[in-house]
Amino acid sequence: MKIAIDGPAGAGKSTVAKAVARKMKFNYLDTGAMYRAAAYAMIERGIEPSDREKVLSALPGLSMKIVYKGGSQKVLIDGRDVTPYIRTPQISKGASDIAVIPELRLKLVDLQREVANEYDVVMDGRDIGTYVLPDADFKFFITASPRERAKRRYLELKETVPDADIDQIERDIIARDKTDSTREFAPLRQAEDAVLVDTTDLNREQVIELVSGMISGAV
Ligand code: CDP
Ligand code: CDP
Fold this sequence. Notes:
Elements: E1 2-6, H1 13-24, E2 27-30, H2 31-44, H3 52-58, E3 64-69, E4 72-77, E5 80-81, H4 89-98, H5 102-118, E6 121-125, H6 128-132, E7 138-143, H7 146-157, H8 166-182, E8 195-198, H9 204-218
Parallel strand pairs: 1-6, 1-7, 2-6, 7-8
Antiparallel strand pairs: 3-4, 4-5
Helix pairs in contact: 1-9, 2-4, 2-5, 4-8, 7-8
């Protein structure tokens, strides 16, 4: 069984994907973490994620592996777990920049499909329903207003960054959505057969219940 969850930044994709995976005892694959890890690896090598030529020349030497430890996903670059370092605003932007490069995407999509061939999965990202798993059993497109999404990210960030600026977060989110939805190859787009869930006025539990209900009502 394959469940595809797509949508823009901060819409609640990973929250619902993790909960559904736990309920159904499926593996959860956060594909965003793979783009983030790729951006991190390039920055570590002194390469700007937007520098297509340099990224392409470093690509054959990029070794990425997905492992599951204690029930959660880790992304290994050259055998080293980089998961703790990939959730910064710099890496968010870098991930969106590197995600424009088709050759990089194809390499990650191969890995994503390998996971889907091996396990029942809930996968979240931008192009899962449209490109990675076009035959997924269930497809959801999770969204919310930019302000609400910025508010959610602000509340998360405030713990570690007391002077986080909600207006800046909103601008960053809107810029990233634009890069993601206007790139030529596998852009952020709702699949024709995906169920649209607007979570602007829904809390975590309501979204989880709604999506889980649609799945269990159909199987
Ligand atoms: O994966 P994505 O970027 O789409 O979003 P997320 O990481 O699942 O959710 C971003 C934040 O919004 C998390 O802190 C969630 O707890 C929160 N959230 C919420 O407040 N209300 C929802 N309906 C869904 C998520
Ligand atoms: O958690 P959040 O929604 O902020 O972002 P993410 O899911 O971790 O993804 C980070 C970036 O990776 C996105 O802005 C996209 O540019 C890229 N991405 C993608 O292009 N395709 C995917 N399937 C997943 C992520």
